[in-house]
Amino acid sequence: MIKFLNLGLQPLANSYLKKKNLNHKEKKFKLEVAFNKKNYLVSIVNTVPKEKMFNNMYPYKSSESKTMRKSFKDLTTKVKKRFKPNFIIEIGSNDGVFMKNFNKKNIVGVEPCKNLAKLTKNINYTTYSEYWSMKLARKITINKKAELIYSANTLSHIKSLNEIFRAINYSLSEKGVLILEDPSLLKCIKNVAYDQFYCEHIYVFSTIALKNILNNFDLEIFDVQNTTTHGGSNRYFIKKKINKLYTIKKSVKNEIKKELKFGLNKISTYKIFADKVKKSKIKLLNIFQKLKKKKLNIIGYGATAKSCTVLNYCKIGNKFIDYFYDTTSYKINRYLPGSKILIKKYKKLNKKNIDVVFLGAWNFKDEIFKKEKNFIKKGGKFIIHVPSPKII
Ligand code: DWN
């Protein structure tokens, strides 16, 4: 593994602080990112035990944005039509935003965060509140294998790829399909979206890396689609190699071509990216300093896990940002880890008391700009740090 990026000491991204704990020392870990030149996998170097991140107090709910609700709903329609699955497993079912589009008889969820699993259990969707493992795979599919396994923004959070794919291989029927959806490394590197790296994102996958990993488990990608969610993701359609029901689509070759052309197989590409990250930090700090000199009121919008990386790496704290707005109940009245900026319950932006807004949830720019059109009309501005820090 070759380290190429050092994002400093970072707290746990989704560990929002209570007021009474503001003076407690926060646990921090060294956030470094590395490239494996054998299989092209990009991963963080130091990982945090899963129980510290995914427990009974996980704050993130996938259904919080219109964009994601629509994305999951649209996929459901396509999946039903294309694969007609009768037995589906969703790994990382979160608050049920995907699951709820299916009949309760046809889908089971796996969600180790007990507070979230409860939400789907309460409405009678079978949900295993456990980490995805071989043991769990045996429990769920000992008698009946899955025709579809779906996992969005989850496998990148699990350290043991061996355990993940062995368990998937065991659970998937011979003719079954695995659909994986995760942020695209190509998009992340191209857009200098370094905030995709934090404790939970152990991996940011490329097609070339995923192909190499899947090969060890006799699995192969037969289709790949680029989606716009989370700043640019890939949706991979995967099958067992023995399954001849699907032919490998041109999309796979094309995606690999794009990645190789950009140089995702070369360490030099990642070194260039790391230089851009350093420049991005300087530029973002300059923007904040200039705005503060003018005594403008700056707030944040969307207290994302990604913001944790940016704010702590760039050392942007409550001297620059007065507070964040967020719609998520678990985050409200808490403080962002490290930077200790207060998170307030979302209110429509008002130009009377807010001049500039740092867009923590930059991946939902279109949805947020639509919602805040009056603020924009009245001259309200946003700071966006991806692909390059600027005021718009
Ligand atoms: O992989 C992960 C992704 C999918 O979700 C997890 N490791 C953790 C989490 O990452 P994130 O916090 O960076 O995700 P989002 O989806 O960018 O978070 C958006 C945040 O912004 C949420 O807290 C909700 C909030 N929000 C809001 O307050 N108003 C979002 C929208 C669209 C809004 O209008």
Structural overview:
By secondary structure, the chain is α/β, with parallel strands linked by helices. It is built from twelve helices and 17 strands. The chain has helices spanning 50-53, 66-83, 114-121, 134-141, 161-171, 185-190, 207-215, 250-262, 267-293, 305-314, 365-371, 373-377; strands at residues 2-11, 28-35, 42-44, 88-91, 107-110, 127-128, 146-152, 172-183, 203-204, 219-227, 233-240, 298-301, 324-326, 343-345, 356-359, 381-384, 390-391. The strands form three sheets. Strands 6-5-4-7-8-11-10 form a seven-stranded mixed beta sheet. Helix 4 (134-141) runs parallel beside helix 5. Bound molecules: ligand DWN. Ligand DWN binds at residues 60, 64-65, 153, 200, 230, 302-306, 326-328, 331, 346, 361, 363-364, 367-368, 371.
How large a portion of the residues is in β-strands, by DSSP E?
15-25%
Under CATH, the topology of the largest domain can be stated as Rossmann fold
What is the overall pLDDT average? 97
Note the gap between the termini: 38 Å
Classified by CATH, the class of the largest domain is Alpha Beta
- CA radius of gyration is 21 Å
Ligand roster: ligand DWN
Helix content: 25-40%
How many strands, what sense, and barrel or not for the largest sheet? 7 strands, mixed
**Level-2 CATH architecture of the largest domain:** 3-Layer(aba) Sandwich
Short description:
This protein has helices spanning 50-53, 66-83, 114-121, 134-141, 161-171, 185-190, 207-215, 250-262, 267-293, 305-314, 365-371, 373-377; strands at 2-11, 28-35, 42-44, 88-91, 107-110, 127-128, 146-152, 172-183, 203-204, 219-227, 233-240, 298-301, 324-326, 343-345, 356-359, 381-384, 390-391. With 392 residues, the chain is of the alpha/beta class.
